[in-house]
Amino acid sequence: MAFQLIDSLTKAQTPGASLAGMTDEQMKKIEALREKIKVEEDMARREMDRQQMEAVELAMLESRVMHRGGLAMTQVDDIGIGIDRLTFWLGKLVKMVDCARLTTLNGALDVPTPIQCGKFFAAISMLHIHMRK
User: Fold this and answer.
1) pLDDT of 16 over the 60 cut
2) pTM above the 0.85 mark?
């Protein structure tokens, strides 16, 4: 979303609300950051797919054990361990995605000048106000 906002602000013709004054060097840095974040998002997406598959396998195992009637203690332990492992990896996934979000924000604020950062924050604020309406 931040990159889409930067793109629209660089093309905007509205005086005072535009980032059209960004230099080529700034645009190259933004593009490099965009590529870096895309790689991180792809890694997070693959990890999420893997975790979803493990959750499905865990649910199938739990369902199979429940349908047999009696629960063997090792099977119950296996389900508990599987849930703990899934919880651990989902926590790591949330941290990975949060790190990508913070990297995006920090990178998007390192490149522009202070005046451009102010315009960027104003645009983000307006976007959030419109989204909440």
Assistant:
1) no
2) no
